[in-house]
Model the fold of this input.
Amino acid sequence: MTIRVEIPHHLRTLARVDGELRIDLEAPATQRTLLDAIERRYPVLQGTIRDHETRRRRAYLRFFACEQDVSHEPADAPLPEAVQTGREPFLIIGAMSGG
Amino acid sequence: MSTVRVLVGTRKGAFVLTSDGKRQSWQVTGPHFGGWEVYHIKGSPVDTNRLYLSQGNAWFGQIMQRSNDGGVTWETVGNKFAYDGVPGTHQWYDGTPHPWEFKRVWHLEPSLTDPDTVYAGVEDAALFRTTDGGQSWHEMRGLREHGSGAHWAPGAGGLCLHTILLDPVNAGRMFIAISAAGAFRSDDGGTTWRPINRGLKSEGIPDADAEVGHCVHRIAMHPSRPHVLFMQKHWDVMRSDDAGESWHEVSGNLPTDFGFPIDVHAHEPDTIYVVPITSDSLHYPPDGRLRVFRSRTGGREWEALTNGLPQQDCYVNVLRDAMAVDSLDSCGIYFGTTGGQVYASADAGDNWTAIVRDLPPVLSVEVQTVPEAGR
Done:
């Protein structure tokens, strides 16, 4: 399966990609397998979404999918079916800010 | 003719300002890494095209960059800064124990002999080193674990290791400074450390002349005389003539002895520069006048340098890593402000002009004097 992933502007610049990421994964895809795959394909993103050591999501980032906040879903829970089938993207969102 | 390259880190990216040796006409490139905080950029003294850069923000954390062509192109290198072992705790603002947590790289100091070796001063205070050009970073834990680490407390800007000085004469000797712990020295290449704060007196800590706990803002040395150190402390400008074994105050006739940067003329070891700031409550120059003060006597006697600097309605600050000198004759002095100006003097501070006026707030300024063959 191919998972569509939207990442923030600064991470696209860092990874030197335009538009969505397309990540091939074996079913069932989870947050952990998806983030592992993203970091394998784009090593410069290591440490920018999850902490290097604890693997916890960085504090100013959230994960959205299918109009739901899935940030606090277990890392090993399957992603929503619409994300797994590629119908909906998995969104990695930075907290809004000024400055 | 040599080229001068000014490396400017700002709240919203990096800028490279380039001029020939006349230092009258400048080319500005950037922003590099637009939108990111760039805390520091510094070039290797043995390969002027090799630059290292600390980039980050609250969202995505620490990123490290390396350039092999003087800042034209950049390569992302390793960003994993893991404390060696279980780091334990330091003091929090309220005096309670607080776990050591890596936040950012404040300062990069490339080796004097090897372009692949760089020291990094980080928050929460620790010293890291790479020997593979930035791909991997390893803590030099002897500093954090020398004995007083559990008592270190952050200044308002965080518990940051912001100054690293490598002694070019005595192999293995290095100095670092931490806000708010003080200055430390190693004589064995960073394996073991001891505090060097005798003579410092600080209001605001329980024991004014304690061995550690002082908010040292910056230390500078002249490479020809590395046993002489100059320090801008939270309050007080200090000098040591014995490699930090003891310090004495040289604030002299400064209008205020609070400030952040301090630097030394490239060719005159007793000519030093500071930028007095009103107070720790008022982080702007006294009377709205931006003045660099120069001492040609290694302290105590200071003269105000004002030609070309705003002398009314100026309320910017100059941060600790935002002043540097070139090595041309005559020596050029450069500093950046929180108002986004980078000022340059090609005549040792007598006259100043703004190279740029409207950058984001300037966090750091470094200068490279690049021989013609190195361009």
Notes: The interface with chain B takes residues 8-11, 14, 44, 46-49, 52-53, 58-61, 94-95 of chain A (CB under 8 Å). Chain A has one domain: 2-94. The longest strand of chain A covers residues 2-6. Residues 2-94 of chain A form a domain with the Ubiquitin-like (UB roll) fold (CATH 3.10.20.30).
